Amino acid sequence: MITQENINELNTLLKNAKPSEIIQKAFELNKEAVVTTNFRPYEAAILHAVNSVEANIPVVWCDTGYNTPQTYKHAEKVIKDLNLNIFLYVPKQTTAHRDVVLGIPSVDAPEHALFTEQVKLEPFRRAMEEHKPRVWFTNLRQGQTAFRDSIGIFSVSKDGVLKVSPFYYWSDADLDKYLEENNLPNEFKYFDPTKALENRECGLHA
C-alpha cells in the first residue's frame, strides 16, 4: 500500500521529469496498470506516451454514447494508428432509450446524478472491477479544475489505485508540440453530456 509520504516523495522527485520517465517509474512500482481515455482533446498524447513504454497495456474507453461524429472518427484513427489494446465500456441502457425516458438533464436538475451514474460512473466502475489495476494512467492536468490543481503527478484514487498523470504540468502549447513531433491527431469537437462547464469536475476523479 503506497502512503501519502511515498506520493509526496514521488511528486517532488519527478516534478520535472519527462512523461516517459514518469510512466517508467510507475511501471516499476506495479505492472498491473490501465490507461483510461474518452478521446477528448489531447488524449492522443497520453495514449501514445504510455503505449510507447508498454505496448500491450489495456486501454479503457468509457463511451457515454453521446460523443460527436468527429470524436468517434478521431478515436478510430488513434486506435488504429497506435494499435491500442482497447477495451470498450458503454452504459447498460442505450442512448435512444435514455433520450425517451430521461433525456440529458441540466447539471442543476435532480435527475443529473442518475444520468451521470448511468453514462459515466457505472461503466467506469465496471471497467475497474474487471481489470483491477493497481496503477491508473490518466491525462489530468493542472489548471483544469480546482480539484485537479491539488493532486500532483501522482495521487491515489478513492479506491486506493495509484493515479499517474504524466502530463500534469504541461500546457496546451506543450501538448500541441508533442502531438506535432509525434505526428499525432487532435480533435476539439468533443461533448461531455455530464458537464455544463469546461472546468467542472467529471465525477471520476474527485
From TrEMBL:
Pfam families membership: PAPS_reduct
Matching InterPro entries: PAPS_reduct_dom, Rossmann-like_a/b/a_fold
SUPFAM superfamilies attached to this UniProt entry: Adenine nucleotide alpha hydrolases-like (SSF52402)
Gene3D superfamilies in the record: HUPs
Pathway per the UniProt entry: Sulfur metabolism; hydrogen sulfide biosynthesis; sulfite from sulfate
PANTHER family in the record: PHOSPHOADENOSINE PHOSPHOSULFATE REDUCTASE
Domain Phosphoadenosine phosphosulphate reductase intervals: 34-185
UniProt protein name: Phosphoadenosine phosphosulfate reductase family protein
Family: Belongs to the PAPS reductase family. CysH subfamily.
